[in-house]
Design brief:
Elements lengths: L11 H14 L1 E10 L10 E3 L20 E7 H8 L10 E6 L14 E6 L16 E12 L2 H4 L8 H23 L2 E3 L5 H14 L6 H5 L4 H6 L3 E7 L13 E6 H5 L7 E4 L1
Antiparallel strand pairs: 1-6, 1-7, 2-3, 2-6, 3-4, 4-5, 7-8, 8-9, 9-10
Length: about 280
């Protein structure tokens, strides 16, 4: 994601040091970028909105108040594998659907009755139920392989730059970071989610998975250290950014977390979503 032409403003020595630093710290992630749905968008595509792959109205997920949930998005794992050659520990086939209560804002953060994840590997072409769904998909999710440097590592890239160029390099790095942050915030991701915010989401998920509300005081409390440690065995499966496209005013991101063991066993119903 580095535009090498932008580095021409620096000396050859500085350019080489920056490229070396980026090569050492670069992270590859699967990003799902929003594209307006078209007539070619199919029921099995990775997408937001529309009708889910449910053929029986009786199978439609209900929230804990027994109200029909809203279908938000789905991921087709077969489409993901085509970009990165397969995601480690992820299924190679199947569709994962996310349903959210229409009253999700009224639930407590630790509640688990406001969402449902449904994973299907069979009958993906079956006739779907339109009655409870939005009339059409709002967006298709296009997988892109992105390389970036986690923000916390950016300043290390300038550590060995000559003093006379250091200020210019720092300014360029900040502008580059701002562009990356804007792009990442406006997309979704599957695995490879590396950020301070993602690590915070995993700790929150570890608390919520055990029915315990999270706050900074409890995080610092030694009685809850086992939950903080448990987050090391978890991963962000799916990060949903850019949700203001679907929900005006919703500026938060949704992190869908799970343990590595559950990921290996495709136990997606055990996922724990976290708003941050």
């Amino acid at each position: 994601m580095i535009n090498r032409d932008e580095l021409n403003q620096f000396s050859e020595t500085t350019r080489n040091r920056l490229l070396e630093a980026f090569a050492l710290n670069e992270v590859t992630t699967m990003a799902l970028e929003y594209a307006i749905a078209s007539d070619t968008t199919t029921a099995t595509d990775s997408r937001c909105g529309g009708a889910p792959l449910i053929s029986d109205p009786g199978d439609w997920p209900l929230d804990k108040n027994r109200n029909a949930m809203q279908f938000w998005a789905q991921i087709n794992f077969e489409q993901m594998g085509g970009i990165m050659g397969g995601l480690k520990n992820c299924p190679r086939h199947g569709v994962l659907m996310l349903f959210i209560s229409r009253d999700y804002r009224s639930f407590k953060a630790k509640d688990q009755g406001w969402y449902r994840l449904v994973f299907r590997t069979e009958d993906l072409e079956a006739e779907i139920v339109e009655a409870l769904a939005d009339p059409h998909s709002a967006y298709e999710l296009k997988p892109e392989r992105l390389e970036y440097v986690p923000p916390e590592l950016l300043h290390s890239a300038a550590a060995n730059i000559e003093p006379d160029e250091r200020d210019a390099v720092e300014a360029w790095l900040q502008g580059w970071k701002d562009k990356i942050d804007l792009r990442m915030a406006d997309c979704q991701q599957i695995l490879g989610v590396e950020s301070m915010k993602a690590r915070e989401a995993l700790i929150v998920a570890a608390f919520h998975a055990n029915g315990i509300s999270y706050d900074l005081a409890r995080r610092a409390d030694s009685h809850y250290k086992h939950l903080v440690d448990a987050a090391e065995q978890m991963v962000v499966l799916w990060r949903l950014g850019g949700l203001q496209r679907l929900l005006p005013g919703e500026k938060r991101e949704l992190f869908i977390c799970m343990t590595y063991e559950d990921l290996i066993n495709s136990e997606f119903q055990r996922c724990v979503p976290v708003w941050l």
